[in-house]
Amino acid sequence: MNNISIKPTINSSSKSNVLSLDFGETKIGFAIGNHITKTSHPLKAIISSKKTERFKVIEELIAEWSPGLIVIGLPLNENGSESRLTLLVKKFSKKIINKFSIPTVLIDERYTSVEAELLLVASNGKYKKKDGVIDQVAAQIILESYFERNLNVNSWTNNTYRPAL
User: Fold this and answer.
1) CA–CA gap between residue 10 and residue 150 (Å, rounded)
2) What is the domain partition of the chain in residue ranges?
3) What are phi and psi of 69, to 5 degrees?
4) Percent of the chain with pLDDT over 70
């Protein structure tokens, strides 16, 4: 993949909310955060493989939270190589840009679901894998990873995604 040298950023007059997605073929976890306060929390998960249902939920979340940026977890193999799901996420990211005109950033998401599950077990020990809670917490971890990378969030210059690996 061709690395883009432009850092993903948001105009200072833009909305400060950042929507995060943990993409899966049957589930997408969502989290919301704020690039000024660097805080985040899980939102919801959609359990569906139907594109229309997925994009409807995304559209509703965009209407509700007005994000200036969308961060999407990039699933890489353990050795950093790309998989079939990596290519699906890149395609999905481009669809988000085209449909909603909101810039996206791809963040390495290796082990976020494992970390999310460990956090859930440590916090209360009770959750159902089927309900998407792990995916929501994984989306939050992805967003926190984005914030920790201290990406410049002062002036957006390009609506193209850039992997922040």
Assistant:
1) 13
2) 17-164
3) -155, 145
4) 68
- Per the structure block, which two tokens stand in for 7? 């850092």
Residues 6+ apart with CB under 8 A from 4: 158, 160, 161, 162
User: How would you write 49-65 as a 3-class SS string?
Assistant: CCHHHHHHHHHHHHHHH
How far apart (Å, rounded) are the C-alpha atoms in residues 29 and 4?
A: 26
Express each pLDDT in 47-79 by its tens digit: 988 989 999 999 999 999 999 999 999 988 888
Q: What integer pLDDT is reported at residue 165 of this predicted model? A: 43
The length of the chain is 165
- pLDDT tens digit string along 22-39? 998 889 999 999 988 888
Which of the four CATH numbers 3.20.20.10, 3.20.20.140, 3.40.50.2000, 3.30.420.140 does domain 17-164 have? 3.30.420.140
